[in-house]
């Protein structure tokens, strides 16, 4: 056998491949394992390595297990080195001739004879690569590593080649059928798709469709989220028969979360089906102003089946239609779920809630309430009925409300200690509030005096003349200061006080925040500098006095977010006054976020200030200012080198806020 193999090698070197193949074939037939059969030992026909690999099976186990055909029944295992060597050279010869299918047959035969040796895997992997079957090659190399998992990679040059080959095609390790993964991972993968994209996945194959609609993956259909898209405005909901199937695929209890944005056209039958087939609904977010149909939408009001509903967000034109009528605020639906409801978001405020005797139902467990918009900009919205209807409120946000009212004041005098004792978050955002509205300021001052508060965010937008608002925590505009209604705010747990365009004197801020600073609670604060009509020495002196008034806050280790607005210092960073603000910010060891803006500064001047601040701080985010494109690029380059991110527009406040217990 050795002589025949040597002759074959000489013929191969001379590129006489047919002659070389004959020598190698004669050598294999002379092996004792052929048991004298002239045609030689047959190759196993029952081992289908490529089919096993396609089904994510183990090539190594397929080679190792005893075959069930004639080759396995009549012939024993062969450990003759020359036989194995002849197979390798024969595969190499057919490979050189370009006959890759025949070369693969002999390479597989090598695997059959010696599944523990790396040679067969290397030969098969090489041929698979020549056939451009790269994923199959990766699986072959992986099988060879599996066969030698007890052997260190560096102990053999051939074994190291297996690792190198696997690494070369490692990208194919990610191309696996996701349904081979645990069910939890499958659910996580497909959770990134909406219902339309999941249904498209049905086209991959029948097993995928069966798996995606099986009870094992019912949670994929429990979030009925119909996302808004600029390309899908006016898009219809799925037909009723498909909705029924989706709700069946969700399993018992139907959907847990339903989100229907304004871009989707939904009919009343589809909405009713979604809700009534989902008694375990926990989250509902719906735009009820049906712009595409004559019939306006309404939510079921005669059933009490939603005993797990905790979050509801409804949008519509509720200030135009009485409650519970088509297109009106779904008050009875919410009242039926009041026993479990914890989060409510309303746009716009129902007309009936503004009557002299408001008809707001009781929501005993509600924790967060956000109210958007009120059409009557002249009539103040009453606060007291809200405190009665939502007694356990923890977070309250008013958005685009023009005026608020404390009426009747006599009740506040008697009940103020019992009103919203758990309130921790107060947000007020409006674009039209006037500084001469005493009722709104009195109401905000009362609410901001609740000692349970942890976060106060007052965004009063712009007004005429000064472009700033006076301090709501005291001043001549406060008509109720002398009435005994207001307690002195303690705010011992206050974490953040954000007050855009509302300046607070340093002395009042010190009194207001003293307990929070003492208790090491305060983390976020806005310093709004007093408004000056004209830039100049007087404006600079006012800003210097204002900043020095905050010396008591310098170096506070708990502060991580600051806002600085409408300051005016020297434009020259080399000037002592021009460095006051950067030096002040540098004293805060844990300052990570800065919101900065000043109407007194142009792009060039503000750029100098920001660059000087970057030199002396370790900020992660700077936001709130608007630069021309070229200026932004220059600032961003320096900021990037310092590990700071520049955000031109501040992100909207988080809602609801995650509260510390």
TrEMBL record:
It comes from the Eukaryota. The lineage of its organism: Eukaryota, Fungi, Dikarya, Ascomycota, Pezizomycotina. Gene3D superfamilies: 1.20.1280.50, Ribonuclease Inhibitor (3.80.10.10), Tetratricopeptide repeat domain (1.25.40.10). SMART domains: FBOX (SM00256). SUPFAM superfamilies: F-box domain (SSF81383), RNI-like (SSF52047), TPR-like (SSF48452). This is F-box domain-containing protein. It comes from Claviceps purpurea (strain 20.1) (Ergot fungus). InterPro entries: F-box-like_dom_sf, F-box_dom, LRR_dom_sf, TPR-like_helical_dom_sf. Residues 175-224 form the F-box domain.
């Amino acid at each position: 056998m050795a002589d025949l193999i040597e002759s074959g090698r000489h013929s191969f070197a001379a590129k006489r491949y047919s002659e070389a193949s004959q020598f190698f074939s004669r050598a294999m037939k002379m092996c004792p394992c052929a048991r004298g059969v002239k045609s030689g030992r047959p190759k196993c026909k029952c081992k289908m390595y490529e089919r096993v690999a396609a089904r994510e099976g183990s090539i190594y186990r397929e080679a190792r297990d005893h075959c069930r055909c004639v080759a396995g029944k009549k012939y024993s295992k062969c450990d003759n080195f020359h036989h194995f060597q002849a197979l390798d050279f024969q595969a190499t010869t057919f490979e050189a001739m370009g006959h890759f299918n025949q070369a693969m047959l002999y390479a597989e035969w090598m695997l059959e004879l010696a599944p523990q040796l790396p040679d067969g895997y290397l030969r098969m992997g090489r041929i698979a690569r020549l056939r451009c079957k790269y994923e199959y090659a990766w699986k072959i190399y992986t099988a060879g590593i599996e066969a030698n998992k007890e052997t260190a990679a560096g102990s053999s040059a051939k074994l190291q080649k297996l690792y190198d080959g696997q690494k070369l095609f490692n990208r194919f390790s990610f191309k696996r059928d996701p349904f081979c993964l645990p069910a939890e991972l499958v659910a996580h993968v497909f959770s990134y798709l909406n219902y339309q994209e999941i249904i498209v996945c049905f086209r991959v194959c029948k097993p995928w469709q069966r798996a995606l609609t099986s009870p094992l993956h019912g949670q994929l259909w429990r979030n009925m989220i119909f996302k808004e898209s600029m390309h899908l405005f006016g898009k219809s909901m799925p037909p009723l028969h498909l909705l029924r199937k989706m709700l069946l695929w969700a399993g018992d209890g139907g959907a847990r979360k339903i989100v229907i944005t304004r871009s989707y056209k939904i009919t009343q039958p589809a909405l009713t089906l979604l809700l009534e087939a989902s008694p375990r609904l926990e989250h509902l977010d719906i735009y009820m102003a049906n712009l595409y149909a004559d019939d306006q939408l309404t939510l079921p009001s005669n059933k009490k089946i939603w005993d797990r509903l905790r979050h509801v967000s409804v949008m519509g034109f509720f200030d135009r239609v009485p409650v519970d009528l088509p297109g009106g605020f779904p008050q009875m639906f919410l009242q039926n779920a009041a026993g479990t409801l914890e989060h409510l978001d309303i746009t716009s405020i129902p007309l009936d809630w503004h009557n002299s005797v408001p008809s707001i139902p009781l929501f005993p467990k509600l924790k967060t309430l956000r109210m958007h918009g009120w059409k009557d900009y002249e009539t103040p919205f009453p606060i007291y009925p809200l405190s009665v209807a939502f007694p356990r409120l923890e977070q309250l946000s008013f958005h685009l409300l023009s005026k608020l009212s404390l009426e009747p004041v006599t009740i506040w005098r008697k009940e103020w200690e019992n009103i919203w004792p758990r309130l921790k978050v107060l947000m007020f955002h409006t674009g039209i509030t006037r500084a001469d509205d005493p009722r709104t300021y009195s109401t905000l001052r009362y609410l901001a005096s609740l000692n349970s508060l942890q976060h106060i965010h007052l965004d009063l937008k712009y007004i005429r003349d000064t472009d700033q608002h006076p301090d709501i925590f005291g001043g001549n505009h406060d008509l109720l200061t002398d009435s005994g209604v207001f307690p002195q705010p303690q705010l011992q747990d206050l974490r953040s006080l954000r007050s855009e365009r509302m300046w607070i004197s340093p002395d009042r801020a010190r009194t207001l925040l003293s307990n929070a600073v003492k208790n090491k609670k305060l983390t976020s604060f806005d310093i709004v500098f007093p408004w000056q009509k004209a830039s100049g020495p007087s404006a600079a002196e006012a800003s210097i006095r204002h900043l020095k008034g905050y010396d008591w806050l310098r170096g506070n280790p708990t502060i991580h977010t600051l806002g600085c607005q409408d300051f005016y210092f020297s434009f020259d960073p080399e000037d002592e006054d021009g460095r006051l603000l950067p030096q002040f910010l540098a004293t805060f060891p844990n300052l990570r976020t800065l919101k900065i803006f000043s109407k007194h500064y142009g792009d060039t001047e503000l750029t100098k200030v920001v660059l000087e601040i970057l030199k002396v701080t370790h900020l992660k985010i700077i936001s709130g200012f608007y630069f021309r494109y070229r200026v932004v690029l220059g600032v961003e380059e320096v900021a990037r080198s310092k590990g700071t991110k520049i955000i031109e527009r501040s992100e909207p406040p988080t809602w609801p806020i995650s509260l510390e217990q």
